[in-house]
Specification:
Structural class of chain A: mainly beta
Number of strands of chain A: 11
CATH architecture of chain A: Sandwich
Shape of chain B: globular
CATH class of chain B: Mainly Beta
CATH superfamily of chain B: Immunoglobulins
CATH class of chain A: Mainly Beta
Number of domains of chain A: 1
Helix content of chain B: under 10%
CATH topology of chain B: Immunoglobulin-like
Number of domains of chain B: 1
Oligomer: heterodimer
CATH topology of chain A: Immunoglobulin-like
CATH architecture of chain B: Sandwich
Order of helices and strands of chain B: EEEEEEEEEEE
Shape of chain A: globular
Strand content of chain A: over 45%
Radius of gyration of chain B: 13 Å
Number of helices of chain A: 0
């Protein structure tokens, strides 16, 4: 089974703090993603990475950065946390289409990190 | 821009009362349509991927179908443990690996 883990289930931070969210997957997937999920807005893509040290902006990258130094690990960084970044953060991974047996581009999600910025 | 609309937003069923959830989409070049289940406070759990109109997939009491404009998730004789939010998502050709999610249907099954 694919396993995606996130470093924290719950986090409480102060405005202006630098926040690190860590995600690790154990299936040797090339692609990794960070989303945020807010009521009524669904999942919105922040950043994704298709290879080590590679990153692409998603739909809402402002106020965030990412780091992917190793294939299995993808970090989301809030440079200076603000209250409007209070949200549920979800990490996902997927293999490239050529290797996927069950489905093309299927993304597998971690348990999520609920972040509260005060 | 790819779009996904799910209906209804919420659905309450009696145990054993079958129903369907709808996912309407517009996408430039469908690569795949995905269904996920999400329990409160948890990440989405993958259910199905559908690739082309006419395709169907089943898992226990769930059956997903796909047309050129929408997908249905049919729930047959649901049980309370089927209560969850069901998310639909589409992968289009507009961006590598980019997937657009709907806002979900929250299903509650009453014993």
């Amino acid at each position: 089974d694919v396993k995606v883990t996130q470093s924290s289930r719950y986090l409480v931070k102060r405005t202006g703090e630098k926040v690190f969210l860590e995600c690790v997957q154990d299936m040797d997937h090339e692609n990794m993603f960070w989303y945020r999920q807010d009521p009524g807005l669904g999942l919105r893509l922040i950043y994704f990475s298709y290879d080590v040290k590679m990153k692409e902006k998603g739909d809402i990258p402002e106020g965030y950065s990412v780091s992917r130094e190793k294939k299995e690990r993808f970090s989301l960084i809030l440079e200076s946390a603000s209250t409007n970044q209070t949200s549920m953060y979800l990490c996902a991974s997927s293999p490239p289409p050529i290797r996927e047996r069950e489905g093309r581009e299927t993304q597998y999600f971690g348990p999520g990190t609920r972040l509260l910025v005060l | 821009e790819d779009q996904v609309t799910q209906s209804p937003e919420a659905l309450r069923l009696q145990e054993g009362e079958s129903s369907s959830l709808n996912c309407s989409y517009t996408v430039s070049g469908l690569r795949g349509l995905f269904w996920y289940r999400q329990d409160p406070g948890k990440g989405p759990e993958f259910l199905f991927t559908l690739y082309s109109a006419g395709e169907e997939k089943e898992k226990e009491r769930l059956k997903a179908t796909l047309t050129k404009k929408e997908s249905f998730l049919h729930i047959t004789a649901p049980k309370p443990e089927d209560s969850a939010t069901y998310l639909c998502a589409v992968g289009g050709s507009g961006g590598y690996q980019k997937v657009t999610f709907g806002t979900g249907t929250k299903l509650q099954v009453i014993p």
